[in-house]
């Protein structure tokens, strides 16, 4: 891994401009979930999901260092990435909101590792946790995909700080 010197910002760097420029990068929307050894489910809405490698099959996503679910994902052996379809905005909002039981009355099937597969998702990827890289205010999770499935659908997107249907 190559790292660069300091956390010092370039002179005149505009953080607001940075955020706005990033927001122009249109993404899909996912919900990443895991289960702790006590059986409790944890999950949140994530749009930092991306592909890394085909052989081996690797994906990544970023989790904020302040996220309540960080301890759960940090010790998870497996997690699942559910890729939301256009009609699943309610789920995206539910898993982005603050405290409250996001899994209450949630309908789901189980993946081979016993993780929730949301009905109607465009795709899901069940991952074995492979590596983690703390960087800045986030932790990057790299997972090796062990099982996946897709169901071609209109995706839910996120662009300019808003949910969009692509
Ligand atoms: C469209 C969208 C994408 C998001 N992507 C991420 C992400 O990639 N990583 C992240 O840590 N939080 C992301 N969030 C914010 C989390 O979903 C949100 O802060 C959530 O409440 C965190 O849950 P937790 O504190 O229970 O872990 C996103 C929110 C939205 C609405």
UniProtKB/TrEMBL annotation:
Lineage: Bacteria, Pseudomonadati, Pseudomonadota, Betaproteobacteria, Burkholderiales
Keywords: Oxidoreductase
Database matches in Pfam families: Flavin_Reduct
Species per Swiss-Prot/TrEMBL record: Massilia terrae
Key word Methyltransferase present: no
Protein name stated in the entry: Flavin reductase family protein
Domain Flavin reductase like stretches: 22-165
